[in-house]
Structure formats: C-alpha cells, structure tokens
C-alpha cells in the first residue's frame, strides 16, 4: 500500500456528544414553551400508531433505496459492492451525518468503508462524490417539482415557500455546475494542481468519475432516480406523522413534510436540533393546538433522528470494531 492510498478515519466523538446535547436542549425547549411532558404523553395515548409505524416503514424503505443509489455507482465504477452491505454502511454513515454540522460528515466514512473493501482512496472518493451529487440533485429536483405542483399553499407556509423555491433552484444550478466541473477535472488539474502526487490522485479520481457517466450516463441516472425515490420516502415519514393529526391533505401535507425535512439540512447544528422544531412551531401553530404540536415534534424527531441515530450508532460501533480486527480486503 503506497502513501497515496493510506487513510485514517476517526469517530467524531465531539460531534456525537454535541449532537446529543443539542437534541436534548431542543426537546427541553419544546417541553418548556410548547407543552408539558405529561400533556404530550397523554396526547400520545390517543395518537393512531399505524401512522407512526407507517413513518418507520418509509424510513426503512428510504434506507433500501439509498443502497440502490450507491450500488449503481459501484457497478459503474467497475467494482460492485453488495447492496445489503452498502445499506448497512450508509445507515452507519447517516448516524455520522446526523451528529455533524450541516449534515456533512457521512461521506468520508463511506469513502473509508469502500477503501476497506479494497478500493483506492481516489476510486472511493469519486464514487462517493458522484453519489453525493446525484443525491443533492435528486433532492433539489424533488423539492422543486413538489413546490411547483402544489399551486396555492396554506397561509401558514406561503411566506416560506417562495424562499425555498428560489433556494432550491439556485442549489440545483450549483450542484449541476460542480458535477460538470468534476467531470472536466483535467482543466481544473492544469490550473490549480502542480504537485506530482496530487496529479496522480486526481488522474485516477477523474478516470473513475468519468466512467460513472458511461455509457450515456446510465449509472449516474439510476443513482439520481434512486435519490429522488429516497428523499420521496424519507419525507413520506413526516407526511405519515402529519396524517395522524389530520393536518392539511394531499400534496399540501407533503409540502409541509418537505419543508420540515429540509430545515435540519441547512442547520449548522448537528442533527439540525432546534431548526426543525423552530420551523414546525411557526408552520403548524395555526393548524395544531400546543399539546398536539409538542406531540408531533416528539414523534417526528423520534422517526427522523432518534431511531436513525440509535440504529446507525449500533451499526457504526460494530463496523468500526470489525474494521479494527480484520485486515483490509483486496478488491472484490
């Protein structure tokens, strides 16, 4: 193993602790300003649990589709990884994403996991970068289409939708530009990369990245479509929770779920703790009484944060111990 292929990954303990503390403080604020825990517990007893389990099913379906996204790209890169193993790695990486600022920490762990499976670091980085571009493009397209199709929106969210529409249009343009720029990496390399080691790394990265768009970009397209389906199901969890409260209906209810789901992504606080609660409070205060609003926040956070953190944390712990005990694999 040469120097360019060596890598090290460390568990982000500070982010994990900060995420747990921030999430706890957010719940304390909910209890202190929205509803007392006793009131929320009483409200939970009347909540139809089928919607809660429906939300969990949406989350698990989203995990499965995320595995399809990365499976397609590993096939395109010429070194496919098993779908089930990618799903487990992505759930573990989601735990890291939830406990790091701006939901940005999961990608390096996936690079590390692919490296442990025998891929070089440039190879793994190209696959994960393309997967990230596909995912972010899918998110921007899904949100833009949903917001465009909904037409008139409830008064409580109308003032937010225009900003979200413009933001996602700009975000999609940026993601497309970065995706194309990475494909034209040779020009960037000539402009900013001078050292021989970096040139070698970039050359391999670019070769793998370009391979993902051939023939006719079908592997990237599959990843893009899987990303749209992933976010569609992911935000379907919020839709199911809202259905249990009878908030709005149809596509308008789904718009509420999308806006709630986007809030944690743009928050610099690990897990978006506080951001989603703030958005929920201002969007739903006219639709739900305070006790029901507090109950919704607890249920939504349980499905979107606490269960993924629990499952992802357990898988991450197992995988880190396994990586420490076993040697790095050769290419599959």
How many separate helices? 13
Note the main sheet. none
Shape type: globular
Overall mean confidence score, pLDDT: 79
Which stretches of 5+ consecutive residues score pLDDT under 50?
1-7
Radius of gyration, in Å, reads 21 Å
| Content-based structural category | mainly alpha
What's the total count of β strands? 0
- Percent of residues in helices: over 70%
Percent strand:
under 5%
Order of helices and strands: HHHHHHHHHHHHH
Taking the alpha carbons of the first and last residues, their distance comes to 17 Å
Notable characteristics:
single chain; mainly alpha; disordered N terminus
Topology:
Elements: H1 13-33, H2 37-46, H3 49-76, H4 83-98, H5 106-116, H6 121-149, H7 155-183, H8 185-192, H9 196-211, H10 218-245, H11 250-262, H12 275-284, H13 290-325
């Amino acid at each position: 193993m040469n120097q360019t292929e060596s890598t090290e990954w460390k568990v982000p303990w500070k982010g994990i602790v900060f995420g747990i503390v921030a999430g706890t403080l957010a719940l304390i604020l909910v209890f202190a300003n929205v509803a007392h825990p006793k009131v929320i517990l009483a409200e939970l007893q009347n909540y139809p649990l089928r919607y809660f389990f429906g939300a969990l099913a949406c989350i698990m379906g989203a995990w499965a589709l995320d595995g399809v996204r990365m499976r397609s790209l590993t096939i395109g890169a010429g070194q496919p990884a098993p779908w089930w193993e990618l799903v487990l790695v992505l759930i573990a990486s989601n735990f890291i994403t939830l406990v790091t600022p701006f939901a940005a920490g999961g990608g390096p762990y996936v690079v590390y996991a692919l490296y442990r499976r025998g891929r070089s670091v440039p190879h793994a980085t190209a696959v994960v970068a393309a997967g990230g571009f596909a995912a972010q493009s899918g998110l921007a397209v899904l949100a833009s289409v949903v917001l465009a199709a909904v037409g008139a929106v409830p008064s409580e969210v109308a003032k937010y939708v225009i900003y979200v529409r413009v933001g996602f249009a700009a975000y999609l343009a940026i993601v497309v530009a970065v995706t194309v720029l990475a494909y034209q990496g040779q020009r960037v390399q000539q402009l900013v990369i001078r050292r021989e080691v970096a040139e070698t790394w970039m050359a391999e990265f670019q070769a793998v990245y370009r391979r993902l768009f051939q023939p006719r970009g079908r592997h990237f397209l599959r990843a893009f479509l899987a990303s749209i389906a992933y976010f569609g199901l992911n935000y379907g969890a919020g839709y199911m929770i809202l259905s249990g409260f009878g908030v709005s209906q149809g596509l308008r209810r789904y718009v509420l779920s999308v806006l709630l789901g986007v809030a944690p992504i743009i928050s610099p606080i690990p897990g978006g703790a506080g951001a989603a609660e703030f958005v929920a409070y201002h969007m739903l205060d006219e639709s739900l009484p305070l006790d029901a609003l507090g109950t919704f926040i607890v249920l939504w956070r349980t499905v979107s944060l606490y269960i993924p953190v629990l499952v992802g944390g357990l898988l991450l712990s197992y995988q880190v111990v396994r990586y420490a005990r076993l040697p790095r694999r050769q290419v599959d």
